[in-house]
Amino acid sequence: MAEPENHTLRLLREFREEFSEFRTEFNAFRGESRAEIADFRSETGEQLAEIKERMDSLTRAVAGEIVQSRYVTAGIDDRFAEIERRLAALEQSR
Length: 94
Fold this sequence. Notes:
Shape: rod-shaped
Number of helices: 1
Distance between the termini: 134 Å
Strand content: under 5%
């Protein structure tokens, strides 16, 4: 039968080797995870940039429509003001 001291030393060596393997595997996993996270961030950043670009485009389009409608409305308001002025002149002349 093996001496208890030798058995304990053997177990401690095995633990050290297993821990070393675990650390190596864990570091490899962590490196892969970091790479995956970096890829995800990159893809997400690209998607966010594309969404922002689309929103900016829509914002410009809506702003253009608003300006155009104000221009048209201003023209109509001017016409109404002219019609009201003429109507008032006609009423005074009667």
